[in-house]
Write a structure and sequence with these properties.
single chain, mainly alpha, MetI-like fold
Length: 290
C-alpha cells in the first residue's frame, strides 16, 4: 500500500490501532503497620507486643512440659515464679533491686553529666572534635571487663568501683552519640543566627540545643539501656548484694531458676524505664514526632 492510499484510509475514518490503556495503579491493601514507614495505633501496638511475649511464654511452657530439656538447665515458668516469690517474701529480691538501681542511677548520672556538655562541645566546634573525638573513640573500643581489675586497684571494692564500671560502659558511647545529635542540626539555621548578629552562646542556647534536644533525649534512653546490662558486670567481683551478684552466686550452685528469674526482673526494669523515657520524650518534644 502506498503512502497516498494510507492517507486516504485515514481520511476515510480508518485509524491505526491505538495503544492499550495504561494499567490502573494497584492499591496497597496491606495494613499501614505492614507498609514501609507506616504507622500503628497505640492499641494495636500493645496487642502485638503482648502477643509476642505470650508466644515466647507458650514456647517456654511447651519445652519444659515435654521434658525435652532437664529442669536443671531450663526450669519451668512455675518454678521460676516460685523462686522469685520466695526471694521477694524474705526481702532478698527487693534489697537486690534497690542496691542495683542505686548503683545504676549514680553511674549513669555521672556519665550523663559529663557526656552531654562534652558531646555538645565536640559536635559544635571542629577544633575540639579533633582534640577529643579520636581519644574517646580509642577508649570506647577497650573492653569494659578489662577495667575491672584496674578499678579495684585504683578505687577499691566499695560502690565507687561499681559506679566506675557503669560510667566507663556508658560515658564514651554517650559522648559520641550526643556529638552526632548536635551535628544533625541544619547548618542553615546556624548561618541564619550569624546573619542576624547572634553570638555563639546565643546560637547554642536558642538554635542548637532546642534542635538537638529530642535526639539527645533518645541518646540518654539508649545509654540507660546499656547501664542496665553493665550492672551484672559491675557486680561480678567484690560485691555482696545486687541483681548481678545474685546471678553470679546462683551460677556457682546451678540455681538456674534464680538466674532466669533475675534476668526477667532486669528485663522488666529495663523495659519499664525505656517506656517511661519514651513517654516523657513524646511529652517534652511533641514537634519531633512524625
Amino acid at each position: 500500500m502506498t503512502a497516498t492510499a494510507r492517507s486516504s484510509d485515514t481520511a476515510a475514518g480508518t485509524s491505526a490501532p491505538s495503544a492499550p490503556p495504561a494499567a490502573a495503579p494497584r492499591r496497597n491493601r496491606r495494613h499501614p503497620s505492614l507498609r514501609i514507614g507506616g504507622g500503628i495505633s497505640p492499641r494495636l501496638y500493645i496487642a502485638v507486643a503482648a502477643g509476642s511475649f505470650l508466644l515466647l511464654f507458650a514456647i517456654w511452657v511447651a519445652i519444659t512440659a515435654t521434658g525435652a530439656v532437664s529442669h536443671l538447665f531450663l526450669p519451668s515458668p512455675a518454678e521460676v515464679l516460685d523462686r522469685l516469690w520466695g526471694l521477694a517474701a524474705d526481702g532478698t529480691l527487693w534489697s537486690d533491686v534497690a542496691v542495683s538501681v542505686g548503683r545504676i542511677a549514680v553511674g549513669f548520672l555521672l556519665a550523663t553529666a559529663l557526656a552531654i556538655p562534652l558531646g555538645i562541645l565536640i559536635g559544635t566546634y571542629s577544633f575540639w572534635e579533633a582534640a577529643v573525638e579520636p581519644m574517646v573513640d580509642f577508649v570506647r573500643y577497650m573492653p569494659v571487663v578489662g577495667f575491672i581489675p584496674l578499678t579495684i586497684i585504683w578505687i577499691g571494692i566499695d560502690d565507687s568501683q561499681k559506679w566506675a564500671i557503669i560510667f566507663i560502659g556508658t560515658f564514651f558511647q554517650e559522648v559520641l552519640l550526643v556529638m552526632d545529635n548536635v551535628k544533625r542540626v541544619p547548618r542553615d539555621l546556624v548561618e541564619i543566627g550569624y546573619t542576624l548578629g547572634e553570638r555563639d552562646r546565643s546560637i547554642l542556647g536558642r538554635i542548637i540545643l532546642p534542635s538537638a534536644a529530642p535526639g539527645i533525649w533518645d541518646t540518654l534512653r539508649i545509654s540507660l539501656g546499656w547501664a542496665w546490662t553493665w550492672i551484672v558486670l559491675a557486680e561480678l567481683v567484690a560485691a555482696s548484694s545486687g541483681l548481678g551478684y545474685r546471678i553470679t552466686t546462683a551460677q556457682r550452685y546451678f540455681q538456674t531458676d534464680t538466674i532466669i528469674g533475675y534476668l526477667i526482673v532486669l528485663g522488666i526494669l529495663g523495659l519499664a524505664t525505656d517506656q517511661v523515657m519514651k513517654f516523657a520524650g513524646r511529652r517534652m518534644f511533641p514537634w519531633a514526632e512524625r
